[in-house]
Amino acid sequence: HLPLLSPHLHQPAMMMMGSTTMGGVLLLLVCFASSLALSTVSPPPPRYPRALQTPRDLVQRVKAAPSVREVSQLLEENDDLVNVFVVSTAMSKLKRFGKPRAALLVFEEARRRGIPQDGFTFSAAISAKAKLKDWRGALYLLGEMRAFGIKANKVATSAAISACERAGEWENALRVFDEMRKKGGDMDAGAYNAALAACARGGQAERALDLYKDMAVDPDVVTFNALISACAKGGGLYAEKAFEVFDEMRFRGVEPDVITYNALISACRRTSSTTGA
Predict the structure, then answer these.
(1) What is the mean pLDDT of residues 263-273?
(2) What per-residue string of b and e applies to 72-86 under the rule 16 or more CB within 10 Å gives b?
(3) CA-to-CA distance for 72 and 117, rounded, in angstroms?
(4) Do the beta carbons of residue 85 and residue 117 sit within 8 Å?
(5) Reduced to 3 states, what is the DSSP secondary structure of residue 255?
């Protein structure tokens, strides 16, 4: 039986979980949210016939579900078919609908029922925590992955770093990045970009430049935007380096966007030179 994340749970939702199905929990959540909206009552979702025989069938239907309510209904009506693959698919679908809390409810209910979790479900849960800026919850789950012997994949690593960065915990974001890199973690552009964004938030221009030099993957527009922002916030000579980074960006054929130019304007304001403005 897997431990629950009691310090980080949505308490009202967990109180409902005691005597209902996984889909039932989500239906209650959807109905509660709808009652607060004071909008026109939508018709009830269609009732699916019991034509699903295997978890694979359920996975395909969840992938095709057009709403949170229908994902919830599918889980409720086919509760006996729910396994780790169904859980992973449902969480991904709910995150695409912009419902990270609902995705976490599915994850927690699956754990409560003793359904073994894998790297995909843990990564989805950590990503949901990042969306909610719950950096403590994200790091707790990352620690649990290690405790269960599940290697943190690219998504989990990037999401944990991003959770810290989004919450303003740039020091913790860089600490996680350093720890994962030392342990041979799977570091992709997403992990580097999240670490660079943390450097930008903390004004750590030198650290950002060092990270860029160490990148073993191709940088993208997010990489350069974070690097230029970090240099701009560093001020002085670092702000002037922002224009060198921009030159590097164009040399590599990476197309700048509005964020790029806003960061360059910020760099102009933080240096005594207006060259490149």
Answers:
(1) 83
(2) bbbbbbbeebbbebb
(3) 19
(4) no
(5) coil
Q: How far apart are CA 93 and CA 99, in angstroms?
A: 9
User: Tokens 């927690």 map to which residue?
Assistant: 108
Distance CA 57, CA 1 (A): 27
- The pTM (predicted TM-score) of the whole model is 0.76
Place of tokens 């009691």: 6
CA dihedral 167, 170, 176, 178 (to 10 degrees): 160
Does pLDDT of 3 surpass 60?
no
What is the Cα–Cα distance from 1 to 170, expressed in whole angstroms? 34
**Interatomic CA distance for residues 277 and 271, integer angstroms:** 11
Per-residue pLDDT tens over the stretch 81-93: 999 999 999 999 9
Question: How far apart, in whole angstroms, are the C-alpha atoms of residue 85 and residue 17?
Answer: 21
pLDDT digits (tens, 9 = 90+) for 147-204: 999 988 888 999 999 999 999 899 999 999 998 888 776 678 889 999 999 999 988 9
Task: Kindly tell me if the per-residue pLDDT of 110 is higher than 80.
Answer: yes
> How far apart (Å, rounded) are the C-alpha atoms in residues 20 and 28?
10
Instruction: Give the span between the Cα atoms of 246 and 267, in whole angstroms.
Output: 11
What pLDDT, on a 0 to 100 scale, did the predictor assign at position 2?
33
Q: How many helices (H) and strands (E) does the chain have?
A: 15, 0
CA distances from 70 to 67, 125, 235 (A): 5, 21, 51
Only one residue has tokens 């992938």, namely: 63
Given this model, what pLDDT does residue 4 score? 33
Cβ neighbours of 240 (radius 10 Å): 20
Q: What is the CB neighbour count within 10 angstroms for residue 54?
A: 11
